[in-house]
Design a protein that fits this description.
About 35% of the residues lie in helices and about 15% in strands. It is built from 13 helices and 14 strands. Helix 2 packs parallel to helix 5 and helix 4 packs across helix 5.
Length: about 500
């Protein structure tokens, strides 16, 4: 059941005011429930918070949040539980997780061509990874809600004036005149998320992922003839496998060749928004695992804004608001793990958000950087193995490899991204573990934001089509090339 608007947190200006402003309700919990008896969707308001947004107009915020509470869920418990079953397979080494999309979505990305290009790119990448790993691929898009971004500073300098930093389209606008946080953008974020997911569902239902249709594997951008030949062999092998299935009639009864599951995700940063879309709903009757985890009334708290959410590296404090919120929801969740994460802290965090040690509930998204992964990953793996938690290990090779050019343009080098992924594969193998997936910032558009790769993009090429308002993304050719290379690692052992 959604809370009434009277139960929503009032606009705080300090942690003390936040704690005093909210009547934290207590809900009973079943023997195997995820949350403790002291948890509620609003209990995070009594905790210290990082990356908070302070709104000038408290009345407008209350009105926006009350509106969100009345709106229907964006995703359903049935979909969330289906993803949890798939992620359990990933955690057990039976499947591979591909997660990718924009650094920060803009409202203007809610457009058919841009949505379709991401779907097609993730489909092609997953086919290549299936070929390489010989495993099913679980696809999660950073779409339909990935609007907010954490920032190193809440303000920035603009022509000698201090203005609020751009925090994402669901907070404020990119133009300097639009930087004041606007609560109405929270409601706009809901409708853009719902519309994007609606079009994803419609596109999948209309055959955009039908493997009976030819795929565009254009490889003209690959300048190295040896690499191009290797990619062409992989494409030919995939195409030949599909033709064989069609010839023997194995494809006619295989609905998996006509559509795929594609789930949505975002960083759970704006907790007022997440709380408003957290609903106490019945666990699916056909899902035994969900029913066992449910409370005595058969219900659980689901975040219905997305199938999968993650805690950022800047908001993972053990006693913080974000960890408090995340520990009570039934969704599968991710945790960003950076260089500052100590191994004992990581285990403590797992114990808080997953006390029942549910297999596949947690995805650890490591983001060290190519020069730090060798000194950090193995220790984290050993600590988790010793703790008894069975997690998904996912490599984010993007965030630890960001640099600025001489002109001050933020970019990433393809070779650094590939290096961190290859190091992760090697270290997991050495530690008796396995890499369960990759987490990438990418787009289906022909942007020029990351350098390197077979296109040979250089620093001076970045201004050709640099459109990101936040971090640089792999373009469609670079993303597909990375999938080819990761597939090669698996094929070659």
């Amino acid at each position: 059941m959604a809370q009434t608007s009277a139960e929503l947190p009032k606009v705080p200006s300090s942690s003390a005011e936040r704690e005093a402003a909210v009547d934290v309700k207590t809900f009973s919990n079943g023997l195997r429930g995820t949350a403790t008896s002291s948890w509620s969707p609003a209990s995070w308001t009594a905790k210290p918070i990082k990356q908070d947004v302070i709104y000038d107009d408290g009345q407008a915020l209350s009105k926006a949040l009350a509106k969100l509470e009345r709106l229907p869920p964006v995703v359903t418990p049935t979909e969330i539980c289906r993803l949890k079953r798939s992620l359990r397979d990933v955690a057990l080494g039976k499947a591979f997780l591909l997660q990718g999309g924009d650094c920060a979505e803009l409202f203007e990305y809610c457009e058919s061509n841009m949505i379709e290009s991401k779907i097609k790119l993730l489909l092609q990448m997953s086919l290549v990874l299936i070929y390489g790993a010989h495993k099913p691929v679980v696809r999660i898009a950073r779409m339909a809600g990935q609007f907010a971004k954490p920032r190193s500073s809440p303000t920035e300098q603009y022509h000698g004036k201090t203005i609020p930093a751009f925090r994402g389209d669901n907070v404020n606008g990119y133009e300097p005149a639009d930087r004041t946080p606007d609560p109405s953008r929270l409601v706009s974020a809901y409708f853009h998320s719902a519309t994007t997911l609606n079009y994803i569902r419609a596109s999948l239902g209309s055959g955009i992922a039908d493997l009976h249709s030819p795929l565009d594997w254009e490889l003209g951008h690959v300048k190295d003839e040896k690499i191009k030949l290797k990619y062409e062999r992989i494409v030919d092998s995939i195409a030949e496998s599909l033709r064989f299935m069609k010839t023997v009639g194995a494809d006619s009864a295989a609905s998996s060749l006509e559509t795929v599951d594609l789930y949505t995700s975002h960083e759970g940063l704006l907790l007022e928004y997440e709380q408003s879309l957290t609903r106490r709903l019945k666990a699916p009757m056909h899902d035994t695992a969900a029913l066992l985890e449910a409370d005595d009334d058969g219900k659980q708290w689901y975040n219905t804004s997305a199938h999968f959410l993650w805690i950022g590296d800047r908001t993972r404090q053990l006693d913080g608001a974000h960890v408090e919120y995340f520990r009570g929801i039934a969704n599968p969740i991710g945790i960003k793990v950076g260089p500052s994460m100590a191994a004992p802290e990581l285990v403590s965090l797992l114990n808080i958000v997953n006390p029942n040690k549910e297999i596949g509930k947690i995805t650890l998204i490591t983001r060290y950087g190519e020069d730090k992964i060798d000194s950090l990953l193995a220790g984290h793996i050993r600590a988790v193995q010793k703790s008894g938690h069975t997690v998904i290990w996912q490599c984010d090779p993007m965030h630890g490899n960001t640099r600025n050019t001489k002109q001050g343009v933020k970019t990433r080098h393809f070779s650094s991204i590939l290096s961190e992924v290859s190091s992760a594969l090697r270290i997991h193998k050495e530690e008796g573990s396995f890499l369960g997936g990759v987490h990438l910032e990418l787009t289906g558009e022909a942007v020029t934001e990351c350098v390197g790769g077979s296109e040979g993009l250089k620093d001076e090429d970045l201004n050709t089509n640099y459109t990101s308002y936040c971090d640089p993304r792999l373009n469609e050719k670079q993303a597909l090339e990375l999938a080819f290379l990761v597939a090669g690692f698996y094929r070659n052992g």
